[in-house]
Amino acid sequence: MTLRDETKSLLLRLGVAPDRFEGGAMASFSPVSGAQVGALTPDTAEGAAAAVERAATAFRAWRMVPAPRRGELVRLLGEELRAAKADLGRLVSIEAGKSPSEGLGEVQEMIDICDFAVGLSRQLYGLTIATERPGHRMMETWHPLGPVGVITAFNFPVAVWAWNAALALVCGDPVLWKPSEKTPLTALASMAVFARAAARFGALPEGLAQVLIGGPELGEVLVESPKVALISATGSTRMGRIVGPRVAARFGRSILELGGNNAGVVCASADLDMALRAVAFGAMGTAGQRCTTMRRLFVHESVYDALVPRLVRAYASVSIGNPLETNALVGPLIDRAAYEAMQAALTAARAAGGTVHGGSRVEIGGEDAYYVRPALVEMPAQTGPVLEETFAPILYVMRWSAFDAVIEDHNAVGAGLSSSIFTLDLREMEQFLSAAGSDCGIANVNIGTSGAEIGGAFGGEKETGGGRESGSDAWKGYMRRATNTINFSRELPLAQGVVFDID
Ligand code: NAD
């Protein structure tokens, strides 16, 4: 069976109508072999504008549905995702090139956030606050916000939608999804799974959950529309630099989940066996195409020679292969542009004095597929390409000797997503986690930078955009907070002792 045939049978089993992925002008490809696997009909800007109107109408009805009842829809979505896990996970592997376990893991993440959101639907708590006025009560209530535009990146083609959609739906918000143009098929499949949950739920407002297939121009419709209350945009910092100011210009709300340039710090006391494994997964897993991929590694000079040669050997021997046919740990890059960006970064690293191990193309999957051996680059200093995110498996390794200085270097890049320290020293650990430590949204100890669970709030600082989604209290970003003061007395005292008596 060809990859296109397998893709077709998966899409049909998942419930996608053939006219959604056949016969259209928008080609979609699998990075596994570079083969075309779909021909979709893209949505138009006018169609996107109409979708916004439908979402705005749906909001008026959905916001009045009690939150636990809204949670029931998400519970059913979780059930349908469980039933679809094998097929959807396989489709993720085909479309994004992930290993089978990572493809399935991504669907598991969707299921996990559904479970979380179902519980949340009964816990959208507000506070009761002490008031200075007698006979008064003050409280906070949380209300649905409005339609949420979800713009997603290719590398987590379905999980990021679920992170947003599960929360938005229980919070009372319709969802408009603009998936990456590189991964439209998994988006269609996810919507088909949602449609089954919706059918079991019963009557739902039209336009509660919609998908827009196409390029950035459709995302721009969402970004520009005042009826889209929140833009949750995941992708490059380049994209965020455009989207963020545009949403702000109309006083919209945004959650920006942008690029990372994540680092690990290996200390003299580190468990080096553990650090080796954590760094290998963090830096080479998903072929370096996670926002949380470890891209920089600072190794204490006393353990450099004990760790780095072992890492170089791991890089030389890690299995690279077709994720659909092998158990290889490293699959393909998404496309030719990613390969070229990687080679350009390695050229720049050499020019900056780096010693490059690996990094060359591996002939797997045909001429339109881009498999590479991950690159480990020993750098004399943190300069040139080390300061930027290149979305490919490159790990820049540097020595350090003074703890305060390595923290400075750790924080001296634009992005601020994820970080980790490998140490058995209590002082180093606590300093790394303190206000004077890592400046990232995620700071870990003795685990790598990637592989977050849904229970915590996910996101990062600085050029990563400052947004938070998924667990903890990230739901507050999807709701409108109202402070209510209720006077149950027969007087009208003013706060701060202000007097304003009229006769
Ligand atoms: P990308 O920025 O090229 O595209 C992301 C999405 O933005 C796509 O859907 C694209 O169509 C859309 N888009 C692009 N320009 C737009 C515009 N002007 N207006 C509206 N929408 C626009 O990113 P990518 O290559 O798909 O993904 C890789 C990047 O995403 C990396 O930088 C990675 O670090 C980042 N990422 C971040 C997170 C996170 O949570 N912080 C998660 C995954 C990926």
TrEMBL record:
The keyword Oxidoreductase applies. Residues 25-481 form the Aldehyde dehydrogenase domain. Its EC number is 1.2.1.3. The active site is at E257. It holds the Pfam family Aldedh. It comes from the Bacteria. GO terms for molecular function: aldehyde dehydrogenase (NAD+) activity. Keywords: NAD, Oxidoreductase. Homotetramer. Belongs to the aldehyde dehydrogenase family. PANTHER family: ALPHA-AMINOADIPIC SEMIALDEHYDE DEHYDROGENASE. This is aldehyde dehydrogenase (NAD(+)). It comes from Rhodobacter maris. The lineage of its organism: Bacteria, Pseudomonadati, Pseudomonadota, Alphaproteobacteria, Rhodobacterales.
